[in-house]
Fold:
Amino acid sequence: MSLITVIGRGHSGTRAISHTLYASGVYMGRLLNASGDLVPPEAMYDACRIFANYVEHKGGLEWDFSRALETEPTPEFVDFIQKYLDSVLHDKSDNRGWKIPETTLCYPWIIRMFPEVKYIFWIRDPRDSILSRHATDDLGRFNVRYPITDDERLRRAISWKYQYDLVKATPKPKHWIEVRFEDFVLNQEETLERLEDYLGIKLGRIIVRPDAIERWKSDKGTHYFDFFEPAMKAYGYK
Structure:
């Protein structure tokens, strides 16, 4: 019996892997929305707010995660996560999991609670990721301190960087794989074979749309920020 979760910012294409897991017989929770998120999300949101209190904003676009990484999840945090995952944790299916982008906001403590989970880090070109609105755009909603701005695209970009930095700062769990959304779309078979080897299960194939990638090329607004550069280079985005 295995437990699976997906890590990745909202609009990073995590819907694709959630739908794939669901189509492959993985139990993803009692109630899912159109994006494949386990809902209702409020208990997860509350857990994220507790975690954020252990992150220090050093000013600008820098955060110190050391206290959060060194601290055990609080009893209140554990209660909220168990409440959120109740249907998953009590199901008897051989393969279970969940997906909601907000898991990324408290990822280090999720690892503490579930060290044996198989983690899938889903990555997408940030220029595409910030084109659409998501609940995590305003990090303040989750008690994360950051430079307040009225620029919506900049606010989304800051959220993207914060979550990327948090994942990067966290020691990798026992089971970990990184997958680019673009590879899933353009090389689905090869990408799914990697995931099948990792998960140890046969995965279904869903319809993918090539026009889901590089949408930034036809965007008329601001979609690139200099602080994207290190991550883009690391993951092969030109």
Q: What stands out?
A: The first helix runs from residue 14 to 23.
